Amino acid sequence: MTTVTASSVHYIQLGQGGEWEAESIHDDVLRFGYREAPHDLCVKGDWPRVWDAMMAIRGDAGAATRDVNQIRTYYETDESAIFITFHGGLLYWCRPVGDVEILDDRSHRRATLKPWQNSTLGGALLTADRLSGHLLTVQMFRGTICNVRAADYLLRKLGDELTPEVEKAEEAERALMEATIPLMRLLTWQDFELLVDLIFSTSGWRRVSEVGRTQITIDLELVLPSTAERAFVQVKSQATSADLKDYAERLAETEAYDRMFFVWHTGNIPENLAPEGVILLGPQRLARMVLDAGLSSWLREKVS
Question: Which candidate, 35, 45, 167, 163, places its Cα nearest to that of 109?
Fold first, then answer.
């Protein structure tokens, strides 16, 4: 884990209505409007005279001050700062570098130190649904550039750092997952089948029929109503690699199902080495799904 630092963090809207977002991200630049800003004075850093020029245009001291603050941020920030923007449901971030280039239409462009990034240093995609609302509210800013109030949160996020509160919660969650596995192994095969059925039903799958049953093997047929996808679910209390191979071969022989889930709570099958078309749900992944489905209390009550 590497700590991400920045002298300042700014949000930038890349063009009116985001018209320059795709271009900026593709070309690794920061596009900026304010065509009326006196470029020569901005390069010199003569901000009082820039303010005078913007005041003459705006006719309002407050508006002129806000304009100059944004223009100055664009011109003066260096690679120690971070700019962020949003595009296609993702947060992108970069560091500015080099001089400001004035284009033929009087708009501006600056290069980025590295390509725009839409993931953390550890590779986690920065999707909006995984970001705090405190950070996302910056998109409501009506201007072009503003400071990011949730800068500390953002820097921790980019560096994959956890707050003490989140770290404590994750530690407790890991302990609960580890405790869930032996609880599943206390279930009768009927109750284990029911647990699996409940897990799938909370994900939107609907049980169509029960196509086979023995004391140690229960096959379920499911359908996903939203897509009409059909799945064959093999549920086993104890499983071996030979069992997996056998049922994978059965799947290959039929065209009735789009995929197969092979589910077990005891056995030494690697959960990351699935045959083609088969999704493995062993004890670790199953424990995660029990927690996500809110079935921890149900499980404890069943075995207590």
Answer: 35
